[in-house]
Amino acid sequence: MKNLLLTLFLMLIIFPMSACTGDDDNLQTEEEQTETDPIDPNSKILIAYFSWGGTTQQIAENISTLTGGTLFRIETVNPYPTEYTPCTVVAKEERDNGIHPELKSVVENMAEYDIIFVGCPVWWHTAPMAIWSFLESEGYDFSGKTIIPFCTYQATYRDETLAKIVELTPNSKHRKGFGTTDRNSDVAPWLKEIGIINSQK
Fold it and tell me: For the chain, what is the radius of gyration of the CA atoms?
């Protein structure tokens, strides 16, 4: 009798755990489907980017050339120092203290865009706080929009930076991001892979 009760008890524990595992698998499948859903060729595209040294700007311009998307440069009211070391000091202070710098301009017609590329350099292992200011702005609603991250970096933390952009837009759809150390990187294969441009281009 004791063995029977023990068996029933174990079954009650195991079945709920299995059910939870099944739900997780279904969620992952839904995310993968979102990644591969066809892109409407009439979608309006915005390429929003923050660039300090010009590398990220070059990648953004390359994306715009291939997609026909509108460029929007994310700029802060108080510019970052033009010299490398002083700039890193300011960037680290903002990151460590969660400072959201005020931005210089806004996208007036954000509601019209369906797909938004968001790009930046990697600063202190993550996206610069200017990107946080842009994505957490009360004036923008990214719900249901497709957010596609891209970044430029010197050595590492590419994946962490792309993931942060995704994390900051939880109510959006997302496509595979892109990261590079080379301002002259060919972005066409990536854009074809994620279905933004035709594979024949």
Answer: 21
The answer to whether residues 31 and 91 belong to one domain is no
φ/ψ of residue 48, rounded to 5? -100, 130
Q: Which domain holds residue 119?
A: 42-193
Question: For residues 176 and 37, is the Cβ–Cβ distance under 8 A?
Answer: no
Distances 126 to 93, 118, 164 between C-alpha atoms, Å: 13, 14, 7
The Cα 24–Cα 161 span in angstroms is: 24
pLDDT class of 38 with cuts at 50, 70, 90: confident
Query: Does residue 128 lie in a domain region?
Result: yes
Domain count, the chain: 2
47 plus 29 within the same structural domain = no
Burial degree of 146 (CB within 10 A; 0-12, 13-18, 19+) = buried
pLDDT, position 199: 61
Encoding tokens for residue 54?
């010009």
Length in residues, the chain: 201
Q: Rounded mean pLDDT of 43-59?
A: 97
CATH number, domain containing residue 165: 3.40.50.360
